[in-house]
Specification:
The chain contains 8 helices and 16 strands. The chain has 324 residues and is of the alpha/beta class.
Amino acid sequence: MARIFAYIVHKGGALDDASAELVAAAKKIDAASSPTAIVTGSGVDLDAVCNSLAASYGEIWKISKEALAYPNSDLVRKALVSVLPAGSILLVPHDHFGIDLSPGLAVKMNAPFVSDVMDIGGIEGRYLKLVRQEFGGQVSAHMQCDISGGAVINIRPGAFKPVESAPAGGKVVDKSSEVADLAARRRYLETIASEAGDVDISKEDVLVSIGRGIQEQENVEIAQDLADAMGAVVCCSRPVVDAKWMDKSRQVGSSGQTVKPKVYLACGISGSFQHLAGIKGNPFIVAINKNPKAPIFQVADVGIVDDLLELLPELTNKIRETVK
């Protein structure tokens, strides 16, 4: 069995939730596997990340270089190629950075690349069975990936629920000396923070999120009534912002805000990976959609196939009756 590695995303010394999800994905490939984490960066933040990973990973490979202080896929690609053994399987979060990093990395590793994987069905011979979505999530594509020479696999955030296990007691191995000086044609300039809105949805515990299924701007009030009854805040997916029905600061997703609520009520949201990438912390997800094949149902804890314009007012009334 090929050795499984997980590329770890982090910021400011804090781990991305995908670090635990990649362990779960690795277990779907091989239940007996103990994946190795690979972390790139520099300074004390990198050390903090490595220490945090010790509970989930048996071994953590650290690549510390000043050039890697800000994640640059050109540089990270060169660093990973320098340390990954031939035939390795590398799991990468399917986020903006992973989409930039992985295709070129697979070329350099002379290995297949599969993006946006939602499920893993195990191994048959030299083939790994994978499931990903196409046509905006309307079709689940079942495919086989030849892993005899390794592979780079991007895992959709939120698709694999972290599993509880005994602390791994991971050992940190410094691989920095195996990586030569790094240089790239592009360089980091600055980060421009988005303007704050009237509500900071990233700090809310309960969110009522609306998507294209809300149909008209006048119907946003239906979601607002429910949020008021629940003590929640209304947020949305990108189509609602594009239609100018809600402010950009209320958008959840890879091009919007990242949220970590305890409860996330997704109303009329299909569940594209761009939207799900903005939901962290493994909240309790309730999905309401008229389309029973909507991708959101694959990650929801509770799925309701119904017309949200009829269901939400009934739900609001029931909640108000209960709290009287």
